[in-house]
Design brief:
Helix content: 25-40%
Signal peptide: 1-30
Number of helices: 7
Radius of gyration: 20 Å
Number of domains: 3
CATH class of the largest domain: Mainly Beta
Shape: globular
Strand content: 35-45%
GO molecular function: serine-type endopeptidase activity
Oligomer: single chain
Order of helices and strands: HHEEHEHEEHEEEEEEHEEEEEEEEEEHE
Disulfide bonds: 177-197
Family: Belongs to the peptidase S1 family.
Distance between the termini: 43 Å
CATH topology of the largest domain: Thrombin, subunit H
Number of strands: 22
CATH superfamily of the largest domain: Trypsin-like serine proteases
Largest sheet: 6 strands, antiparallel, barrel
Structural class: alpha+beta
Keywords: Disulfide bond, Hydrolase, Protease, Serine protease, Signal, Zymogen
Length: 338
Amino acid sequence: MTPRKTALKTLAVLSAAALTSGVCASAATASPLAFAELQAHAITSATQVANALGAASGGVYLENGKAVVNVVDDAALQRVQAAGLTAKKVKHTFAALTGVKNQLDAVKGVPQTAWGIDTKTNQVVVKVYDAASKATADKVSAAAAKYGDSVRVEHRTGKLSLYIADGDAIQNSQGRCSLGFNVTRGGSPFLLTAGHCTNLGGTWSGGDVSGAQVVESDCPGADSGLLTRPNGSGPGEINTGQPITSAAAPTVGEQIQKQGSTTGGGSGEVTSVDESVNFDVGVLNHEFGTTAHTDHGDSGGPAYDGSTGLGTLSGGDTVTSYFYPLTLELQAYGLELA
């Protein structure tokens, strides 16, 4: 038996076990924590199957907590079904969509636009805001047109904004933002938030913290910032009491929770991944888009799914909120969750 077939046979056993442990439970009847666990099981199983398919994979997404694996041929479809998962035949491989997205990244100097991968529609979605100049809109639309039906262009009202404003949980003399996650590095405690916040410099305070200094700040490109925590370590949990014990990459269709000191708690759905978002300050790479409602002052606040941390808020518009992935932040700064 080949390694690929072995992996898929193993996943068939895992998927069957997941089904018996409640992965097919109705979203309407599952508690928020149970639904988060349901999603985590579904994402893990589907991602392993998709990876085993190699070039035949069109990526993974969630539909009401249930994983769907996109495939580009009948052989792959049968393999996914044999693993006990739902398969959907699509036109474009995930590798091809990633290639298109990466080629669009070569289009520079186009503020108020964004593009990322939507595995649910098997397309790269390009967003052009009406705050963009005509020259920018024309440039991005022309670039997108080169890739045919692998790209979908959406024209959005409003303007992309980075969410810094008064009324946030952590602040300095120039602005206020929200704490994302309590983290540690080398045993020392730190605060993780958005890089466009820490770019303001200065000394930060909020809650039980005072005198926090900026030690890392990356924006544009990434959107990560790290502050000292002079008052000692903080809890590894959201301010609702929900523990955060791990970090993971987001999946299209995944239901998430968020917290911010302006809008408080809330929920939403991941609509795109690996998105390049062209804010006025420059492009932020690898963002993920969500339907969660956020506003000025929520910047740096966390997105999470149950006990799994997903990212910190950058900003957005009235429809989409963008977060920078927590996995990339932990890796870049050598951090661990508190």
